[in-house]
Design brief:
The chain has helices spanning 3-12, 44-52; strands at residues 21-27, 32-37. By secondary structure, the chain is of the alpha+beta class. The chain has a two-stranded antiparallel sheet. A hairpin with a 4-residue loop joins strand 1 (21-27) and strand 2 (32-37). The longest helix has 10 residues, at 3-12. The two termini are 23 Å apart.
Length: 69
C-alpha cells in the first residue's frame, strides 16, 4: 500500500460515522483522489491537537505493530 493511500485512509476512516461531503476529484486505473469535507465545531488549533492525541480516539485493537501505545 502506498504511503499516500495509507494516510488518506487514516484520515478518512475516523470521519466515516459523521455526515461528510465528499467528491472524487480524479481517478485512473491505478489510483483515485478524494476531497472530503466535514465541518468541525472547534478551532483548527484544538482540532489539530486532538488529532495528534491518537490514544484518545484510536481503537487499540487496530494496530500494525502489535501495540497501540
Amino acid at each position: 500500500m502506498k504511503k499516500s493511500l495509507a494516510v488518506a485512509i487514516f484520515i478518512i476512516l475516523p470521519l466515516a460515522h459523521f455526515e461528510t461531503k465528499s467528491d472524487v476529484i480524479e481517478s485512473s486505473g491505478q489510483s483515485f483522489y478524494l476531497k472530503v469535507e466535514r465541518l468541525v465545531p472547534a478551532s483548527p488549533d484544538i482540532t489539530y491537537k486532538q488529532f495528534l492525541d491518537i490514544g484518545t480516539w484510536w481503537n487499540v485493537d487496530h494496530t500494525w505493530f502489535g501495540e497501540a501505545t
